Amino acid sequence: MLSFSPIAPVLSARGLGSRICCQQMRLLHMPKIVVNGIVVYLVICNCEAPLQPPADLAKGENMQPTEPTNDGTTDVTTTANVPGALPQAATYLMDMDGVLVRGSQLVPGADEFIARLRAQGKPFLILTNNSLYTPRDLQARLARIGLHVGERELFTSALATAQFLHTQQPNGSAYVIGEAGLTTALHDIGYTLTDSRPDYVVLGETLSYSFVRLTQAVRLVLEGARFIATNPDVIGPSEGGLAPATGAVAALVAEATGVKPYFVGKPNPLMMRAALRQLKAHSETSIMIGDRMDTDIVGGTEAGMATILVLTGVTSREQVNRFPYRPTAVVESVAQITI
Ligand SMILES: [Mg+2]
Predict the structure, then answer these.
(1) What is the pLDDT of residue 73?
(2) pTM
(3) What is the CATH architecture assignment of 158-263?
């Protein structure tokens, strides 16, 4: 049950508000007020247990001051002790585009960041809303630009969609508009792909939308098939420039049928939870790293994780204040995140 803890137990020391938590470590918001020049963080949690400082703070250890920024987030670029400024994480989820890669270029330092995670033995998953490719395809594409990761370290919206359908209706059937990334994921969980009386119409990213197949999708939805789409992105990068994405094509089917799809990919926290489940990790000890406030950060927040916004992608520092939610920290790039 969601409840709000009293605001009395607050930390008044500068920066310490970013470390205080309830016993369940499920911070949802961290508004602050300034009293006589002292920053006071108001901690709202979804735990009925009284607020208590983490053990290291109670013992007075590792109390590194941080510099709260104008937007209320912790700017870890201003402190030498990043682990002291952020919740300690056992597991890391990170977006791919805009975080590790930018187009066909590696973000400088992204490979070293992955190496640091490996050296520390921290499990991680690289997330992408793009459902075009299988993890093996993505692994090869990343290797070509110098980022070497395993297939099992990549998690696409197609995989999240397949896992979702498996939990909803094991061994069901689907009419699919998509590429190998999606069809392989559905085959792998035991789904039958059919154009006759499917349980679901599943729409994903594709390079060649066919009006004939869209017409079939519309008819099947009108006949009662449930409508699922891998991700809500309406536009995205392609080899020759921007191209309409799954969300835009889903809108066509939705307008024609009057049936809205269920989007599985980010910002749906379902995708983050599925990724955490794959790692056998818990949101309370995990961090989501992303470049977009409206997908990565909101999804990570709703999944109960601490979040880090990197400025190498879509969202700029100036845009952060426009959103009603905030990342736990803002950094210039993954290169600045120490484990
Ligand atoms: Mg991104």
Answers:
(1) 53
(2) 0.76
(3) 3-Layer(aba) Sandwich (3.40)
